[in-house]
Design goal:
By secondary structure, the chain is α+β, with helices and mostly antiparallel strands. It is about 25% helix and about 10% strand. The structure holds 2-acetamido-2-deoxy-beta-D-glucopyranose (12 copies).
Length: about 500
């Protein structure tokens, strides 16, 4: 800690000496003139007490609702599944009404427009403008209210369970020294342990909103052998966990469930950002966090669940074939351009980048601005992980492969010939042409599209798919892309 904070203050004084150019017109200099830290009043504290006694009253804790999971105290069993599946495939309804959802014109009742900015309708009560859902005084019911809700929240619960196990597992298999070598202190370990405990709360919440058929915790099989790979896997896993919820939350029938889910996914978003910072990535190199369909989140998650207890409630979502980004940028390199082909720890869909690099190629223990990637609040990367126009080599798996708990789900696609690469990030879906160069092999170039001017759309840990068409879709109807998805991957853009 000491060396880190000394380094930080050395950096601050360098910046002050360099007198950065003003960012806002009208300001002439960074010359606020107020006393800055460290305080000039006295010397830094080295004696900590006795403390002032503040007014207080003895209280009794009002006990919270019991959590569904026991506290984890050490490593549980992990590894691949070697048995034979007794059930296969996603859950299906007894009746399926059509082969797909047909597009419709805009909803005829979606016409409200208010050019004057005045109230256009009678207000139901003082200070209460007309409209809204769940605003008419009905008592909230915090339960899923449709098959769509049930399957979405059950998927979310599968995600909370793996996070609970995963965060604890990393703390159990790597020592304090292993973490220190990756620049993470005992305090950072305590923070990760706290995140695991947050997951017990999230798992309890989702379990209660589902009822007795809620899926329990499963057994998992992880793709990392170093602390950096653990952190990289975490920032990828929490990315699709978060984006998976943004994709469905506003489609839920139960607004009450959406309310509580939003309050848990805001915490998950903070976890995702913290793991990025622990990996030395920019904490949030985008203006908007993206949403993805449930079947995408399930595709990313399933390969890491090896088995679930007998009778675990199954999911209705699709598993797409895996898309491999052959030259996925390695965030452990100071020069991501130098990343070798297949420089990942395995062939599963979000396997982290290999962190075991020659010391002269790694950015982990480098403390030169622009090149270091040790844990930090923020880093500038002189050489970005990727850039618009980058050639991206791709291969993709054929459908029909067993994945997920007990190898009991099967990858599938209903798409035609692979023709485009779909890039999903921020508020945007951008297509680039796919150049097919062989059997399940091809390439494309990273697009240069912007969200709003000055915000390149493709950045952060983001999502790409191979599709058979370039259907125009936007964040609220992105799941209409599913029948066109040939294969799905995760792209490390920044
Ligand atoms: C920064 O790098 C220098 C030179 O490699 C090293 O002596 C120093 O200890 C490093 N500082 C930190 C905070 O790691
Ligand atoms: C679980 O951990 C919490 C918080 O650390 C503690 O209060 C509680 O007693 C523990 N429960 C069990 C069953 O060990
Ligand atoms: C679906 O079909 C199965 C087998 O015929 C039956 O047991 C089950 O009750 C049916 N479910 C519903 C919701 O109709
Ligand atoms: C209250 O609003 C809900 C939708 O939020 C609606 O389903 C319900 O019918 C309304 N109740 C009454 C009494 O208007
Ligand atoms: C699984 O469900 C079947 C049928 O309901 C039941 O007979 C069996 O005991 C259940 N197994 C477990 C482990 O709960
Ligand atoms: C990572 O790269 C190193 C050096 O090339 C290699 O020895 C190691 O096997 C790789 N690790 C994985 C998990 O592929
Ligand atoms: C790092 O050192 C190895 C030899 O140990 C060398 O082959 C490699 O080219 C060096 N990498 C860089 C980026 O200089
Ligand atoms: C960091 O990056 C920003 C934006 O690209 C740039 O303006 C700034 O000068 C950089 N700071 C340092 C210390 O490299
Ligand atoms: C990485 O490759 C791109 C494309 O060839 C090039 O423009 C860029 O300068 C390279 N980065 C560095 C740091 O050399
Ligand atoms: C992503 O954001 C980082 C940080 O702002 C920036 O350095 C990088 O160039 C961006 N990447 C792209 C592809 O725009
Ligand atoms: C990547 O694609 C380019 C363009 O087709 C090709 O020249 C190169 O060999 C490919 N690399 C790999 C590893 O497939
Ligand atoms: C990206 O999304 C924004 C906001 O919806 C939209 O205005 C813009 O046209 C989109 N850009 C592209 C290239 O699709």
């Amino acid at each position: 800690m000491l060396s880190r904070s000394m380094y930080a203050s050395a950096l601050l004084s360098t910046l002050a000496a360099a007198a950065p150019a003003p960012q806002v017109s009208g300001y002439t200099n960074a010359d606020a003139g107020f006393p800055q830290t460290p305080s000039s009043l006295g010397t830094p504290a080295s004696v900590f007490g006795p403390d002032s006694q503040v007014a207080a009253s003895a209280v009794t804790t009002i006990s919270g609702y019991p959590r569904v999971s026991a506290n984890v105290t050490g490593a549980t069993s992990h590894g691949p599944y070697s048995g034979t599946a007794t059930t296969t495939g996603a859950v299906t309804a007894n009746t399926t009404l059509a082969t797909g959802i047909a597009p419709l014109p805009p909803n005829p009742t979606a016409t409200y427009y208010n050019a004057q900015g005045v109230l256009l309708n009678p207000a139901p009560a003082p200070y209460t403008p007309n409209g809204g859902l769940g605003t008419n005084g009905t008592e909230p019911r915090y339960m899923v209210n449709s098959d769509f809700d049930f399957e979405s929240i059950a998927l979310g619960l599968y995600q909370e369970w793996i996070e609970l196990d995963l965060f604890n597992n990393g703390l159990a298999v790597f020592s304090e020294e292993d973490f220190l070598a990756a620049g993470l202190t005992a305090e950072d370990r305590a923070y990760i342990a706290f995140m695991a405990v947050q997951e017990t709360g999230h798992a309890t919440l989702l379990t209660n909103m589902l009822g007795e058929a809620a899926p329990p915790q499963c057994t998992y099989d992880y793709p990392f052998t170093t602390v950096r790979e653990f952190i990289d896997f975490n920032q990828k896993l929490t990315r699709f966990g978060e984006s998976g919820v943004w994709g469905f939350i506003n489609h839920l029938d139960s607004r009450e469930v959406g309310q509580l889910l939003a309050q848990s996914i805001a915490t998950e978003a903070r976890q995702q950002m913290s793991f990025r910072q622990m990996l030395g990535l920019h904490p949030m190199p985008v203006w908007f966090e993206t949403g993805i369909p449930q079947s995408w989140a399930w595709t990313y998650l399933a390969p890491y669940i090896s088995s679930c207890p007998e009778n675990t409630t199954r999911l209705a979502w699709q598993n797409f074939p895996t898309l491999h980004i052959i030259n996925q940028a390695n965030p452990n390199r100071f020069s991501p351009n130098d990343t070798k082909d297949n420089e990942v720890t395995g062939q599963r869909i979000i396997d982290p980048s290999n962190s075991t690099l020659p010391a002269n190629e790694s950015c982990v223990n480098v403390n030169v601005t622009g090149y270091g990637c040790g844990p930090a609040i923020a880093h500038n990367r002189s050489e970005p992980l990727t850039f618009p126009g980058k050639l991206v080599n791709l291969t993709w798996d054929v459908p029909g492969q067993a994945v997920g708990p007990n190898n009991s789900y099967v990858t599938s696609t209903s798409a035609g010939a692979p023709s485009f690469v779909a890039w999903v990030s921020q508020l945007n879906l951008t297509y680039t042409p796919l150049e097919v160069t062989g059997a399940n092999t091809g390439y494309t170039f990273q697009p240069a599209s912007e969200v709003y001017q000055g915000d390149p759309a493709a950045n952060d840990t983001m999502f790409i798919a191979i599709t058979d068409s370039d259907l125009f879709l936007t964040p609220f109807n992105l799941s209409m892309i599913n029948p066109h998805v040939v294969a799905l991957g995760l792209y490390q853009a920044g």
